[in-house]
């Protein structure tokens, strides 16, 4: 994982996503942004849409899981896509994703014009991940895992219990590349070797 760079969200557009049958655009201002609205008005859907653009939307027939069955608008929307404009390392990028087939288009703003940086398919459920895209994502925002993003960078509802840490967060904190217990077992083995003949 690369060092997390300073990332600023600038604009989010969703179409046919969750409650948003018609395209909706949210422009973020510098600093803290607060969105206040009654329950079931799409606040959590906006966060899910941002994550789906970055990390893809898995094909799933279970409406309870994070996937296309849960977030495809049921009213026959003309489009099922999202676009995110953001700034990373002082450069403005625009990432568009077509959720139906996980096709993406990443552009970079250069001299006031958009230039294509990378495009292709990125299916989060694929056996063979798109390593080029995931590497680019790690470079731009410091990580390429939606679970890790939602556990650290962008907390969702329900908020995690204070005693519980996401397994990927545990892995990062322990530096073990796996669950923290693997690191603990390794430390115990090393301690046994050092104290074997000391009584």
Structure commentary:
This protein is an alpha+beta fold and 199 residues long. It is 30% helix and 23% strand. The chain is built from 6 helices and 6 strands. It has a 6-stranded antiparallel β-sheet, covered by helices on one side. The longest helix has 16 residues, at 180-195. The protein is globular.
- Quaternary structure classification: single chain
Order of helices and strands: EEHHEEEEHHHH
> What general form does the structure show?
globular
Arithmetic mean pLDDT? 81
Task: Provide a short characterization of the protein structure.
The protein is an alpha+beta fold and 199 residues long.
Provide the fold topology:
Layout: E1 7-15, E2 24-27, H1 43-55, H2 68-71, E3 81-88, E4 91-98, E5 103-110, E6 113-121, H3 131-141, H4 146-153, H5 167-174, H6 180-195
Brief descriptors of the model:
alpha+beta; 6 strands
């Amino acid at each position: 994982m690369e060092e997390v760079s300073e990332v600023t969200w600038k604009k989010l557009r969703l179409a046919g996503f969750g409650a948003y049958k018609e395209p909706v655009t949210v422009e973020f201002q510098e600093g803290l942004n607060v969105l206040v609205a009654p329950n079931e008005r799409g606040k959590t859907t906006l966060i899910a849409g941002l994550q789906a653009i970055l990390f893809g939307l898995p094909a799933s027939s279970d409406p309870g899981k994070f996937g296309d069955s849960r977030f495809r608008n049921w009213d026959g929307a003309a489009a099922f896509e999202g676009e995110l404009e953001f700034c990373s390392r002082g450069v403005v990028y625009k990432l568009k994703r077509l959720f139906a087939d996980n096709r993406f288009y990443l552009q970079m703003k250069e001299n006031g014009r958009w230039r294509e940086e990378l495009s292709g398919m990125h299916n989060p459920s694929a056996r063979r991940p798109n390593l080029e895209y995931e590497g680019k994502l790690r470079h731009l925002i410091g990580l390429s895992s939606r679970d890790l993003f939602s556990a650290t960078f962008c907390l969702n509802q329900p908020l995690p219990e204070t005693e519980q840490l996401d397994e990927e967060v545990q892995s990062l904190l322990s530096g073990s590349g796996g669950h923290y217990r693997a690191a603990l077992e390794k430390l115990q083995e090393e301690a046994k070797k050092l104290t074997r003949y000391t009584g």
